[in-house]
Structures are given as structure tokens and as C-alpha cells.
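REQUEST FORM: STRUCTURE PREDICTION
Request ID: SP-0412
Submitted by: Lab K.M.
Chain count: 1
Length (residues): 323
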Amino acid sequence: MEFLKPLQTDLAVEARENIVEQTSAPISGLHVENDENDEDVTITRVTIDSDQAQQMVGKPKGIYVTVEAPGLRYKNTPLSAKVMNYVAQELAKLLHVSSDATILIVGLGNWNVTPDALGPRTIDKIVVTRHLDDLLSPELKGGVRRVCALAPGVLGLTGMETAEIIKGVVAEVKPQTVIAIDALAAASSSRVVTTIQLSTTGIHPGSGVGNKRFGLTEDSLGVPVIAIGVPTVVHASTIAMDTIHILQEHAAFARYFKSLETLSDQDQQKVIRQVLPDILGDMMVTPKEVDRMIDDIAVVVAGGINQALHPNIDYENIHMYLH
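STATUS: Completed
RESULT:
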């Protein structure tokens, strides 16, 4: 059976959903675990550990965890705190480093372009401690890892590939793990700035929007790379698909889309992909409130990282402890 590739997406959960829609047969080496104990937050863990699953899903072997909370689209401080805790818990499970390990956190993206600024804005909120070894109080040592952070910019701003910059820093700092933060592309508009993905496979900056750069992976950097990303854009064809589905379900308009009822989602995707390029090309779409949403989600991502890396610190009072 020939599988239709999913709409451009960096989310493994969406790539897996696309395959499931096309076949009910189990896929060897593809394991999914859902945690829906919280009515506000859904956690999905996708593990890819076979060549077959890797080829069918279109994602490298590894573990992918998504934390989804539709309410993040709105200003909701209690929910943000809850998601922050979930991110910290899931990140702690993926980290395999000692309590005195050095961690390099990299915020990828262009700080001048809001939908691509998640990485740099998150870095602004990371608690860096590598320079404080001799200043931390005895009760904090052992529960505070040596953390350093960098927002290297993008090729168009620096004239250097991001991977080149990070390779040089890794060679000098010698971290045990790199955590790379980046904005992603989704295949579902409902997941824009409401979903956080953590993975053990590293990251390929710009891949979700068709602008592939050199990857930041364990193979390229020589140390494990954990990627944390949030979808901030969707492809224009996704908006078209969502619109068609809504109109098909709306009684007043359903009769106009009667002919499309016989087409599967995959066939509808093919039609849209054939029609849109001449009109919209590779246009990417982002919410009009993206500036506020990026700031809010950056706080959540940074808070989750801080809690996972510094488990013995009361996050609410962390600045008091370190100054």
C-alpha cells in the first residue's frame, strides 16, 4: 500500500495519525501511549524503534512526547502552571545525566520574526548557572545543574549555519546534553501554540516550513540532543482542509460539498495540493495574537526546563536563591 505523506508537520503525533487513517493494521516498531487523566491536558508518547515505522511515519527513531492543552491559546495562568509541570516531568524522564552535568540550551530561530522567535524568547527566561559554581549555597548544590544557554540567530542574520556555531560551543563547553528549542510547523490549526513536543531525536531547523538546514543531532554534535518545539504556523493547505470540513458539517452549506463526501481525507489533500500552489504557493499561516502567545508559551517551556534541570529549587523563588 502506498501511503500519502502528511501535510507539512514537525509533530510525530500528527504523522502517526495520518498513517492510522490509512490503515488499521498494526505497524511493527510504532508504539503509542496516551495519558488523558487530566481533562485539560493530553499527553501522547510515540516511540519509533524500527526501520519500517521510521519509513512509514517519516520521523527518525526515538521517543516523541506531546503535551497538548487547547486552553493555552488563551491567557490562563493556572493551566500554564499545570502544563509547565507536565513538561518538567516528561523532560526529566528523557534526561539521562547526573546531577552535576553541564547542559547547553540552544534557542533556535529569528528573534526579529515573531512566529520564529520561540527559541530566543525562551532562552531569555532560562536560569543559567554554569558561572555560579562557587556562589551557590550548600543547600542548593546537588539540585542545580550547570546550565548555559545560547540564542545563535539564523543564517540570514549571522552568515553562519546554526550548526556551525553550536558545534564550536559544544567543543568548548563539553556539555553532557544539548536541549534545542525551536518553533515548529503543524498539520492541524488546533495545535498551533497549544502543543509542546519533546523528542530524543534532535532537530532540523526550518524543516517544518520546507527550509532544511543542517541537523542538530547526536550524530552531528557528538552528544545527546533533546528537542523541544511548539508549532507556531500551519500550511495554507491546512486552513483549506479545515474550512472544507467545517462547511461539510454545517447544514446550510453541506449540500454544496456533497461531491466531496465520497473522497477520503487523503484524496481531498491531493486535490488541495494540486490547486493551492498556483494561488498561495508555500504560504504559512500564524494567529494574529502570535506575539502574546509566543511570550506566554515561552514562559511555559522555560519554566518546564528550569524545573527539570534544577529539581531542588523552588521555581517561584528561584531568582531570590540565585542573587
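NOTES: DSSP finds 13 helices and nine strands in the chain.
Reviewed by: T.R.
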